[in-house]
Amino acid sequence: MKTNRSLFAIPFCVLLFVAGLAAQEKTTPSANLALTPPMGWNSWNKFACNVSEDLIKGMADAVVKSGMKDAGYVYVNIDDCWQVSRDASANIVVDAKHFPHGMKAVGDYIHSLGLKFGVYSDAGSHTCAKRPGGLGHEYQDAIQYAAWGVDYLKYDWCDATTQDAKASYANIRAALDASGRAIVLSICEWGTAKPWLWGKEVGGNLWRTTGDINDRWGGQEKWPDGSCCSNGVLAILDLQVGLQSYAGPGHWNDPDMLEVGNGGMTDTEYRSHFSLWAILAAPLIAGNDLQSMRPEIHDILTNKEVIAVDQDALGREGERVVKNGDLEVWAKQLKDGSRAVLLLNRGGAEQQISVNWEDLGYPSNFGASVRDLWQHKDLGKFTGKFAAAVASHGVVMVTVKP
Ligand code: GLA
Description:
Elements: H1 2-27, E1 39-42, H2 44-47, H3 53-65, H4 68-71, E2 75-77, E3 83-86, E4 92-94, H5 102-112, E5 116-122, H6 138-148, E6 152-156, H7 165-178, E7 184-187, E8 206-208, E9 220-221, E10 230-231, H8 233-238, E11 252-254, H9 267-279, E12 284-286, H10 295-301, H11 304-310, E13 319-324, E14 327-333, E15 339-345, E16 351-356, E17 367-372, E18 377-383, E19 385-390, E20 395-401
Parallel strand pairs: 1-2, 1-12, 2-5, 5-6, 6-7, 7-8, 8-11
Antiparallel strand pairs: 3-4, 9-10, 13-14, 14-15, 15-20, 16-19, 17-18, 17-20
The chain binds alpha-D-galactopyranose (GLA).
């Protein structure tokens, strides 16, 4: 009997410990957030520092009125420049001129529309627009955000000097969780310290993989003053190759917010930009003026068939399966076993692009139904391959269902 007791004593302790860990995991407020890539709107790409209560409320109204809420967009996120200083107790001070009723009032308004509220800060001492950052105030700020009803925090990396990126983001995640509120953590570290390797472990729900996107098609270019760099859609796209295995429910690669509708690209290019982000299972955070969008832009942002690819519950990020000069095929496995497939023509003239079933992981003798997600049309049954003419800078996006 004596021997038995000591034999069982250790495993029982281990069991208790494991059960304790499991219970702890379940009660973390941020568990189960962002099980599909977050969708919403953010102020930066169009309005930069020109943010105000009126602007944000107007955009929240437009998310509802435009049908974007129905299409799945839920977060309304204020980026940089809502904050001006810290008070004598080091509480963050809101720009009272532009947000006269404070942040809780803005959050309450957004919530009253059935939407969610996001704000922005920075892991260093200052934000990229030189406003006060979060360093040394993580827990104090997290309590404040929770009191305002914040649901989403984008945390930037300016002025972080010698800070360790992984430790810095683990710290803000711990602070947000300690506030007791479920808050999505958007790691905005620009890919410098490869956040895809540690972002999930520290409780990040998405992490930027690159520097800032710019509203243009094309690769990386120096700015006119010689400084580095302006990233077009293709520059950002190429930097996603090989990262697909790091994404999944609750933790996503973020190739940056959408530029759709901001005026620097053609509608064909915007359709490609949006389709590519959907194939990449990227967060779909619109960045245009929702109050004055043309019908063509509205129709891109609210294409429910393309959004369904992005939001597919399996949570697989798509990958490039064919590269033949300017002609590429990207494919994403979907939960029902079918594939979303994107034929991309980066070149200057229309081209025929084809995809073989083997490129998609299907045997060549399979018959499969193909549906065009921009024409909203079943194209019929195909065996072994599918091909289509693709406009310059355009895409053909289909589902292939055996
Ligand atoms: C950085 C980020 C951008 C934006 C600005 C705000 O550049 O990468 O997305 O948040 O800061 O200053």
